[in-house]
Amino acid sequence: MNLFVQSLSHSWQPFVLITGLLFIGHAAAREGLFESVGQLVARTPGSDGRLLTVTLVAVASVTAVLNLDTSVVFMTPVALHAARARGSDEVAFAFGAILMSNAASLLLVGSNLTNMLIFANHPVRGTTYLSHTALAWVASVVVTIGLVALWRRRELVRRGHGSSESVQWHVGPATVAAAVAVVLMLMTSQPALAIFALGAALEAVDLAVRHRVSAREILRVASPLVVGPLFVVAVGVGWLGRAWHTVGHLVTHTNSVTTAAIAGALSLVINNLPAASLFSSEHIAHPYALLLGLDLGPNAFVTGAMSTLLWFRIVRGEGLDPTVGQFVRIGVPVALVTLGVASFLV
């Protein structure tokens, strides 16, 4: 039972943090923040390739600040809006959004749930974490943009004029809360409760005072039917890892490249969330290399991360019909090259 309690105590904070970030992202969407970003991106002059670059940089920024899942939910429609406003290649923008969301989830501890799980046993200051991941993050962002643009180069040669649609910026409480969340993630080692309180307060005010959101909608954002089972899986796998010391023991003494490869491969087999829970029970020789495998590796196949399954649902709702084959054709090279480059920079 003691091992189960340890797993429980190390697993709850990431889920609380992610829920808080999803609340903040939901409130920011009501303020029009993401729509404004899409309008601003669509004004980019020049070729479709330049528009793609600006769009994916915006996706990377939101991923780093507001978490991988928030980015997939809100920035995938932004990317498609930017493409459609200019008549650009929707496939490049749609696939670019998910590949970039995964690739850019390395920068901050709160950018990806797996990051939180790995450092649950030994929390680090946000600035310390950032000093290890910043260069690898920049490299992953650049490589992802380059490979997506190369993949769809024939469809991205058209030159166009920036959209004339005016951009309406409204800096409200949610936008301020997003900035505060970034500061908390950088300056504290355990920001989960504070960020959750910020997000919950925003939703509560909009529910009880402004009547801009319903209780059912807030419950949908919190996604208890998704988060709950994932939390149970994380605790269960973490407990098994502590009890059996099986696969997780492989990364206790390996070099950084091998560590990243093992983490990436296991993510594709059992998903990166259970993999992170399994590894979190071990003393890891190269924790930042492990994160490369957990964060970048899932781009190789649809089973790697829950965010990818969520993305399929979103883009199909937007009228696209992506295939697993398409995902593999671009996802495998993106995963392999970003892992290879980033491994030299952590």
**Uncertain spans:** none
Q: Give the radius of gyration.
A: 19 Å
Number of helices: 16
Largest sheet features: 2 strands, antiparallel
Helix content: over 70%
Tell me the distance between the termini: 36 Å
- Largest sheet, spatial ordering of strands: 1-2
Instruction: Please state the overall shape, judged from the principal axes of the Cα atoms.
Output: globular
Summarize the helix and strand pattern as letters: HHEHHHHHEHHHHHHHHH
Overall structural domain count: 1
Query: Mean of residue pLDDT?
Result: 85
The secondary-structure class comes to: mainly alpha
What's the total count of β strands? 2
Q: How would you briefly describe this protein structure?
A:
By secondary structure, the protein is mainly α. Helices cover 72% and strands 1% of the residues. α1 crosses α9, α4 runs antiparallel to α5 (90-103) and α11 (224-244) packs parallel to α13 (272-279).
